[in-house]
Every structure is written in structure tokens, then in C-alpha cells.
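tmp note - DED domain-containing protein
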Amino acid sequence: MDFDCYIKVMKEVADGLDDGNIRGLKFLLRDKPNIYQKELVNVNEGSDLIQLLERKELLSRTKVLEFMNLLQLEGRIDLSKKVQIYMETNLPVNLSNHDYYGINGMPVVENYIETDEYRLFEKKINSCKAALIKGTLKEYRDLDKYKLKLFFFHRLLMLINRMLNNSQPLSASRALYSWMYTYGAVKIKISCHHGSGKTQHAYSYARRFPGKSEKSLIWRIDCKTLSQIYRSLSAMVAYLKLQCIFLDHVTCTQSDRQLRASIDEMTKRIQQKLRCEGINNANHLVLLDGVEDTSDDTFTKMLKDFLDTENVYVIATSRVTYPDEFHNLCIEVTGMTEEEAVLYFKVVNNDELEQVKELARQLSYLPLALSFAFAFIANTGSSIETYVKSLAETEANDQLRSLTVSCEVALEIVKKDLTEHGKNLLAYIPYLHPENIPDFLLKSLLPVNMTEDFKEREINKLIVCLRNNSLATLKSRGNNRVIAVHRFTFRVMMNMKTEKEKTIEANALLRHFCHNIYLDTSLIEAVKKNVMFLDHALELLKLYENCNRRPEMEDKVLCCVLLCGVAVTYRLYGNTELSANEYFVKARDAVCELVSVNKADFAVTVCGFTAMNDIHISINGCELIRENSKNLFEKLLHKGKSLSDSFILTVITNTMRNKEQLCYLLEVTNGISYTNNQIATDSIEELLENQIIVPFQESKESFLVELMIHILYNSSKNKRLMKLATDDFTKQNPERRNHLMARLSSDNLCPTDESLVELQYSINLAELLDNHYKHNCPAFRLGLKIAARRGAILYYISSQDSNKSIKCIKDAVKILEENSESNIRFIEFGVVKHDSRSTNYQMVSNKKLLMECYIMLSKEDTTYVKKALTLAQDLESLIPRLYHWKVMSDIHIKIAHVFELQNTEPFITKAKQHYKEAYRREYESNNIRLTRYHLRALLQYVNCCINHSTKEDLEMAKTICNDIKERFQHKSTDEMFDAALETIDKQLNEMTTPKEIINSLLTVNCSGVDIGTQTDNVSTHTSSEGHVRNSQSGISPTKKELQRRKLQLKIELNEIDNELMQLELNNM
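out:
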């Protein structure tokens, strides 16, 4: 099957267009500014049209949205759908900004009306550039009459204090409040009811923000928990293309402290960015939404930072009171007035007027409750009087109960209008994230055998019913619809369920998420799908963490799987390594608890990793780790035997397979059909006979072992990434900065002890499980074994130790070559996933690492350079088929570096192309945080442009340096780029030799850079001497002659270096 999806899809579209479609598309293109009529005349077939759009840069592998829209306008929805599927599964997009935190994530209900409170709020924020919205205080029924008087006396003292403009609170007031708290007069935080209109007022203002311009940023920060604040800010710094911060002095075990430190630093970075040149003239709006603890130091510090930013407007919403220092910015919302409620219901006669007033009074003038009532009366045709009586019958004599009853009535109306499938979807909604429910997720919950048309009808019916009853809003329309539901509605829906219903529905969703979230995220399609499920998986996991019920053993196993899936997604999501680490630890500890293993076994001290002369000890770790691994393996294997056959069957048949695995399965199973990317139950027997599926007994035994390997292997990589993401570039010591920047463009970074220990555990478990398969199922091998062992080799060669053993590197090469030559089927969770063909992910990754080993060995033997070149050319030929891989940018970098080492003009040109492609993919993907790892693509590209310069190359290098400098936003790091930019400008003006640029680029001491990643710094004085001779003879050489002479000198110098190296080897 052809993996180059773009070519395949465009061919299908071209073949599918008839003459009428082509005429229609030509008509739509007639007004495009860069398309001329004479060009359209020559378009007769679909292929002509696609070629024209590609020439005009209106269509490319990464630019297909406009073409998809054109096909829709022409009425070819079928062809448009093909392009959409390609776009959703193959394109590297910025996953960190999926319209959740931006303006599209702030929906306003259709029947929202401006109230006097909104106008007061608007006046407040327009005058003060800030407004902190709080709701009406609850009635204090928990206070007896005496304590209630004390409470209001306290409030009176605070009011007097404000009137006197005293900067310090009255000591009497504070003492009284403290006494009341101690003796139980204040039992809960001062808070208000749901539905008073806080969030809707904020969203309405954001959508009509008067200071908005093209450069304005409007962003919502979830403030319910510390983790949500962290994730919101992570997405924000990614959107702003800023360096994300992780403080190295805070250990991974101090999660709360680390989160707080990261939040503080990210807020400062955002503040600097919004003040910087280019967007400082624009006004921005930050919404701190749903603050649960307004007195929290992290929140107050973040609030002050945003308030201190002159061009930033700030809105905060909370159900609790704000600290006294912000009292001048606070505004209280109580709901509608009686007059506004009358206008809202559009009353025309006096009889209904009194009924509306009574209804509004019973519903406490809460906009949310009134909207439920209005929708119910409009949809059912019943009278206001009937609705008032129904409230009276349910004894709705307080605000909360009135609101609850109104919501329950609306939900009952919705249920009556839905089919059984629609009711099932409605039942699952309260387990999901309320503000971000994509329609594709709801579709995935419908039966597999239901056609797309029927699924669309069911979803449309559900959305219409929810919107008509004021229970939901639609954030966006068209292909990407997202439903938002008020959190209070979720609580009401959950409270209407019995405990048995909650258990059944939660377990069903748990299985659904486990089957749909990929643990292998090597393909872009997997990452994108995981991201769309992420928020909802978190909501479900909270339910299992908070509930008192004890899940069954198999449900516990699935919780471990889901925890791992969430962690893996966070690892690749962008700026969320801390969240990934949190869930990896949860997953690991949950499995340890399941099999009664002490999690302290993983706290093993590692010493002298790179000093060892035996690569196998480096891979497998010390004797203690190996012994602990055997003990853990036996317990996991034993516990796995208690899993049922039905559990394994469900996992095998319901797990979603990525397209790479499906293509392989289609090939090796003689065309067995796979519906909805899943294995059909009726084909299990045949697959068992053909050795595509592992026998159930072995699958059960190995399940927990393989899950633990996944957790430890990915956690190890994440911990290393946390180290790579450390923001060390603010060090004031210039010498220290130079050393860090030298390492920045290389792979030289030793793994942390924790990451190495986890990797060694995963390797030992993988080897034990592989031997188990070898003994019981000789036809199968564990693919994770190759990946884990390769990870240890990568850790070894990328360590900072310059005295790496040549023997160890040669042993590593032997291991990698053996893996590449293997002809065994590799499995994952009981199903064959791949073999050793050249396009397989594991095999390509082996070749990539082999190239690095060959380059290191070329210090001793130059023949290894040719071996590296052969592998690079091999990988280059595979690129069209690997385009949808997540690691493609790294593959481009590795190929480019090998090509650059060849030092010939054709290879240099190709190296630049690969560096450019790696930079482009990193820029377009979610990996836009500028860690040491991700900056490698940018810096090596800049180096290459300068070392082998043309005017175009230098201009590109200047652009990239400016981009990096802007993102770091620190004076200390600005200095690293100023020298390079200054010399690039000089080079552009004079087009002198690039030697001085090479020496000054980022003030890096290149002697500290590993041979595996440094570029050749070739002396150019000989070329200068030739230029002098030509000048003395009166001959003025052309640019081409100088470039040719320069290239010849480089080749000669390279040959001299090789000869010198060979002489040194002979003398050893």
C-alpha cells in the first residue's frame, strides 16, 4: 500500500472531478489575484487543476484547507471528505492551541441578554482595565442568630475600614473573623450559587472586546486547580512561541512546588512577550476563569503580574470572595432584576406579568434558571403559571433547589425527544469535560455498525435538543463542532443517576477510552486523536480517584492503561512534561499496588554510567536492578493469569489500530477486513491459526508486564525531556552560557539517574518477556525490547562523557545491526504489529542511531563515514513514505548532518534542504517550545547556512536567529545572538568570507561539541590568498570562480585531515 498519502489523495480527487466540476472550480478561482485567465484556459483535467494550484502555492502537502473548502463549494462533499481525512491524520499541526483556550472556547448562549450588571461590569473594566467578578453570597443557614450578627458586624468593620481608606485591615475585624472561624461561625468559604451570569458576562465581553486588533491576544486560563492553571499557561506560551520553563533545582518529587515555580516563570515570560516590540501597541485580554481559591499565593501573584502589564485587560470569575487588596476591582453579580426578567420573557399582558415576577422570585433571578424555564415554556407550549406550580410542588424554596429543579425539568424534556441511541449519548455526557465535547467523540460512542449518515442525524438531534433547552452551546460549526455544557448541568445530570448506573456507565467509558487512546504515538494521527480524548479521559480518572467504590481487578488494570495513555499524550503534547510525569508516576504506582511491589525499588543510585567498558552492563544496569526486575516480572506474570479470556478478547477486538499496523495486517492476513480500524471478532480463530494473534493464555500472562514496560520506557524518555527542557540559559556567567550553548546544538546530554533506572528496568522486563515468548511462542518477539535497548544506546552515545569506549560503541553497533536483520514478527499486547522491513518505525529508528554510531567511529576509521552516508541515502529514499511520522524532523536533521560532512556542493545543497524541512516541521508542530532538544533543528540549520553561505542562506539564518532571540525574551540570552546577527549583517553587506561568522555564531566554543553533531569549520585563508593574487594581477574573479575555488580548497583540506587521521591510527 502506498504510504505517500498526499499523492494518493490528490490522484483520487483528480480522477473524481468531472468536466462540470472543473468548470465550477475554475469559476471559483477566477478572482484569485495570482491566477490568470490564460492559465485557467489550459486546465482541462483534474490533474491540470491540482498542478496549477501547486505552482501558485495554493496547494501543497501541508496546505490543503483552502482546496478542501473549494471542493465543498463545488458540491463535491465526498472528495472534500477525503482531503479532510488526509488533513486530520497526516499534517503536523500545533496541538498546543486547539481553540480551547482562545476566543472560540468562550461560547455565549443564544438567549443571553445584556443586563444592568453587565453594563456596570463593562464600565468597570473599561475604566480600570480589570474586573474581578464574584457572585451573590449564599444564605448562611449554618450560622445561629448570635453568630450571624457577629458575621455581619465583621463585614461592617471591613466596610468602615474601606471608607477610611486605611491601607491595613482593622485589627479588631481580623481578630473577630479569626475568632468566628475558630469557633465554627464560618464553616465554609464565602461563595455564591451557580448560574448568576459571571462567566457569560465575561465571555460576552471577550467576544466584543473593544480594544481588539489583529495582534490582540484573548486567552482563557482555567483556574480551578493548580494543574489546570499550569496546562492553560503551557498552551499560552506555546501559542506565543516562547521558551517554556522548568526549574532544574526543583526535583520531580516536589510536584506541587515545581508547578508553582513553573507557573510564576511562565507568567513572567508571557508578561515580557506581551510588552515586547510588535505587539506592545495592541491590547490583550486574559480571563482567569473559575477561580476556586482566590487567596492562593500562586493565583494572587499571577493576577498581580497581569494587572501590572499595561496593555493587558484582566477578568477573573469566582464563586468566592477576593482578597481585600483587590476590593476596588471587584464587582458582584446577583442575577437579573425583576424588570429584566419581565423583558426576557417578552410578556404582553398584565396577568402574565405577575406570573413572571413570581417565577423570577422563586428562581432567585438567576439567569441560568430563568433560561431553563424560558426554554421549557417555549418548547412545550405550557404556561408560566403551570411552571410556577411545578416549582411549588417540588418545594423549591431556595436558590439551589430552584435552579436544580429547573435543570431537571429541561433534561426530562430533552430525553422525550431523543431516540435510544441519543439517550445513551446523553447519559455519557456528565462523565466528559463540560466545555470541550467534540462531535467526533460522541460519534465514536455510537454503534460501530451504524452508518455515518445515521450517526450524523443522532448527533444533530442531540445538539438541537440541548441547545433548544438552554443546556448546551455550540462553539464552532461545520466539520469541527464542539459542544459546551454548564458545569452545574453536569452535576444535576450526575445526581439524577443511581449508583448502579454510574458504575455501569463509567466502566463502559473507561473501556472505550482505553481502546481509543494510543500508547504508541509514533504517528501524527495517533497524537492528534489522543489530544482530542485527553480532557475527557482526565475527567473520568478524577471520578475513579474521588469515588469510594472499589473497582474490580480488571477495571483497575484499565485505569492503569488509561493513566499511561494520558501520560504518553502529555509527553508529546507540548510544554506539559510535568503533567506527563505526574501521570506516569500514578500509572507506575497503580501497577505496583496491584501486584504488591514496593515502589521504592525504583529508587536505585546509578554511578559511572558512561565509564563502563561493557555495553551490556550499561543497558541492563547493576545487579540490584536485574534482581528487582526478575521479582517484578514474576509478580506481574502471575497477576496477569487472573485476567479473563473475555478481557483479552475485548482488548484485541476493540483496540484501535493505526494505519501502519492495519496496512501490515491486511498484507499478512490475505485481506481479512478490519472495520473501523478494529479486528472483527469472527476473524479471531483464523488469526490465531495464522499466528497473527498470540494464544490467549500467553496474552493474559504478558499483559501487565507489557503495560509496565510501556510505562517505564516512556516515563524514562519524559524525565530526560524534562532535563532537556531545563531553562539554564538565564545564567549570568558568560563562560557558563557559552558552554551551555555549545551543548545546545548537539546531542550531548547525560540522562538523569531516575530516567536511566526506569529505562534499565524496562529493558530487563522486556528481555524477560521476550525470552518467555521465545520459550512458549517461538514465532513471536516483543517489539518493545528493540526500542528499549535502543534507548539505552542513545543515552550512552549522547552522554557528556567525551571518553566513550570505542569497544562499547562497536558492541552497540553490533546490537543495532542484529536488530535490523531480525526476521521475526513483533507483537504488542497480543497482536502482531510489524516485522523487520525497512519502512518499519523500529528499523528506521535503528538506522538513525546507527548513523550516529558510525560518525563517532569515523574518528578511528574513516570507512565508517561511507557507511553513514549509505544509511542516510537509504533513509532519504524512504521519506515520502514516512511523512506522517512524529519524528520526521529528527530524521531530516540526522540525514542533513551526514550529508554536510561529505563537504561537496551537491550534498551541502541537500543538507540545507533537510535542515530547512526539519525546522519547518518543528515550527508547524506542537514542538514549538525552544528547549535544547528542539532548538537543535534551528541552530544546525543556521550553522549550515553560514558555513556554506549565499545571500539567501544568510538572510534565512538572520530570520531564524531573530526568531530564537525573540522567543527567549531574556537579556542574557539576547547577547548570545547579537554577535551572530551583527556578523551576518556585515556578511550580507560585504559578502566576505564566512570564517568570522562561524567563530562568532552564538559565541559557541565549538571544541566542546561532539563530533556527532558539530559542523566542519573549514579554514578559508587560502581562498583569501587566491583572491589577493588575482587582485595583484589585475584580474577580478567572478563570484562563481571564488565559490568553485573555495569548494576545491575545502575538499583538499578534508582529504588532508583524513590522511593525517590515518597516519595517527597507523602509529598507534
